[in-house]
Design goal:
By secondary structure, the chain is mainly alpha-helical. The chain has a domain at 34-77. Helix content is 49%, strand content 0%. It contains 2 helices and no strands. It has helices at residues 15-28, 53-76.
């Protein structure tokens, strides 16, 4: 089976695949419209509370600290 010789005008990557790849890259670069409800920074992509990544980490840390304080006070009683 003979292969056709490639010229400069022949696409290396199928145009359909190239278009899908460009759309995927473009989707990653879209700005998030939502801002953090605490500090107005852009929201973290995985935040369901409407928080940026800093405020989300602070909330998680405070929650862990309060859980630890509750267990310590229960053990003292």
């Amino acid at each position: 089976m003979k292969r056709k010789a490639l010229t400069k005008n022949d696409p290396i990557v199928d145009t359909e695949i190239l278009e899908k790849a460009l759309e995927a890259v473009h989707a990653d670069q879209i700005k998030h419209a939502a801002n953090c409800i605490v500090c107005s920074s852009p929201c973290a992509p995985n935040s369901t509370e409407g928080l940026c990544w800093v405020c989300r980490r602070l909330k998680i840390s405070a929650w862990r600290d309060s859980e630890g304080a509750d267990s310590q006070s229960a053990s003292q009683e």
